[in-house]
Amino acid sequence: MKEYVVAILGATGAVGQRLISELEHAQIPVKEVKLLASKNSAGKKLKFKNQEIKVEEARPDSFNGVDLVLSSAGGAVSQKLLPEAVKRGAVCVDNTSAFRMADDVPLIVPGVNDDQLVNHHGIIANPNCSTIQMVAALYPLHVKWGIKQIIVSTYQAVSGAGKAARDELLQQAQDRLNNQETEAKILPTASAKKHYPIAFNLLPQIDVFEDDGYTHEEWKMIHETKKILYNDQDSQQIKVTATCVRVPVEIGHGETVYFVLKDKSVTAAAIQQEIKKTPGLVLQDDPQNQIYPQPLLAAGKKETFVGRIRPDQENPGAFNMWVVADNLLRGAASNTVEIAECLVRDNLVHVPK
Ligand SMILES: NC(=O)C1=CN([C@@H]2O[C@H](COP(=O)(O)OP(=O)(O)OC[C@H]3O[C@@H](n4cnc5c(N)ncnc54)[C@H](OP(=O)(O)O)[C@@H]3O)[C@@H](O)[C@H]2O)C=CC1
Ligand SMILES: N[C@@H](CC(=O)OP(=O)(O)O)C(=O)O
Fold first, then answer.
1. How confident is the model at residue 237 (pLDDT cuts 50, 70, 90)?
2. For residue 14, what are the contacts with CB-CB under 8 A and spacing of at least 6?
3. How far is the CA of 11 from the centre of ligand 1 (A)?
4. Angle CA(55)–CA(62)–CA(166) in degrees, nearest 5?
């Protein structure tokens, strides 16, 4: 059986740490693991299956002899280093948005469109975290009844903006409870002109603003959803709009998803049945007993949790639902490692000539 040399780029980060633990349990025969990060982390030791591994500074020649790269060190690092990795024969699964919309890069949610992996040219993109959980929940409904329109509002945890944002929430909360002045340096985005506190607050900005008034996170949800569902030629016709909001939650993105089906006769009970029988989805929908998805319950889990499914009383075929998932696992590390498992399963861990 072939064994693979796997490099984790961004191994010291919020997502990188989870990539390590997901890889420990993956259906991937691992010969060796290389842990790569910035030069600040070079020499640090991290564990893979109880074995201590020294973190190395990521450079082009770090990828010599590597079969598979799991990448999560930000878009600029991916832009610079992944083409170097591919040149050296490594297949890269990238968590960043750097290559997602490129025509020759498959954008994959396993269970939805992993059949498109055969078209890869060395780089495969992992979608945005908010996109993954929404598409995972909607896909079985789209296959069965066809979706015409999606209107989504997100409630995104601070860990989506990295380790530093999570630390900032905790510090601000502590300062506030101690009646001390607090500082905001990271959110809404590290590169923003102004920063605002997230503790006891909500920020209707994730990523930068586009000229049309939408944020780039909203743009990604709209266009990535269409690309993933493009398998089916009707998908380009799906209307999608989004509002993305940062909330003071550590881990777990929530989404209210309003969707309109082509078939106007579908019932909430039929939708619940589809969700229930789809692998990777967990139905938590029992309002009488106050059973519904919550970030605190989803954190640490790989599944996507779905509840509050109810029809729009004034628009037959339209429904509201509430979808929650761990953004660092389902929205990032688990999806990436599942893509890598599909590549191994389908014997696709090679760069086509
Ligand atoms: N699919 C999705 O929706 C998600 C995608 N992501 C993507 O993953 C990236 C990382 O996210 P996250 O883990 O939360 O961020 P963190 O800030 O927690 O971690 C960033 C990681 O990148 C490394 N890094 C930074 N600069 C360099 C460099 N020049 N060369 C090599 N490594 C570098 C850091 O190393 P060091 O510790 O040495 O600084 C660290 O390991 C995001 O920028 C985003 O692009 C993240 C969340 C969800
Ligand atoms: N933007 C997401 C996480 C992320 O990094 O997304 P992307 O990979 O699309 O840049 C969040 O802040 O919750």
1. confident
2. 159, 162, 163, 166, 328
3. 8
4. 45
Cα 286 from chain centroid (whole Å)? 27
Q: Is the pLDDT of residue 113 over 80?
A: yes
Q: How far away, in angstroms, is 129 Cα from ligand 2 center? A: 6
**Residue 350, both tokens:** 């090679």
Residues 6+ apart with CB under 8 A from 336: 19, 22, 70, 72, 93, 95, 126
Q: Is the pLDDT of residue 259 over 80?
A: yes
Q: Give percent of the chain above pLDDT 90.
A: 95
Domain span(s) for CATH 3.40.50.720 in the chain: 4-127+332-345
Selection from 107, 1, 109 nearest residue 347 by Cα: 1
| CATH classification code of 4-127+332-345 | 3.40.50.720
CA distance linking residue 25 with residue 40, whole number of Å: 28
Closest atom of ligand 1 to CA, residue 40: 38
Domain 131-326 has CATH 3.40.50.300: no
Q: How confident is the model at residue 249 (pLDDT cuts 50, 70, 90)?
A: very high
Which ligand 1 atom sits closest to the C-alpha of 126? 1
Q: Where in the sequence numbering do the catalytic residues fall? A: 129, 253
Residue of 18, 19, 38 to mutate, ligand 1, most atoms within 8 A of C-beta: 38
**Beta carbon of 160 within 6 Å of any ligand 2 atom:** yes
CATH 3.30.360.10 domain extents, the chain: 131-326
Q: Note the pLDDT tens digit of each residue in 72-111.
A: 999 999 999 999 999 999 999 999 999 999 999 999 999 9
Q: Atom 4 (ligand 2): residue with closest C-alpha? A: 160
Short-list 334, 301, 246, 333, CA closest to 14: 333
Position 236 scores a pLDDT of: 64
* C-beta of 161 in contact with ligand 2 (< 6 A): yes
- 334 Cβ closer than 6 Å to some ligand 2 atom: no
Amino acid at 263: D
Q: Is 242 annotated as a binding residue?
A: no
Angle value at C-alpha 78, between 21 and 76, nearest 5 degrees: 120
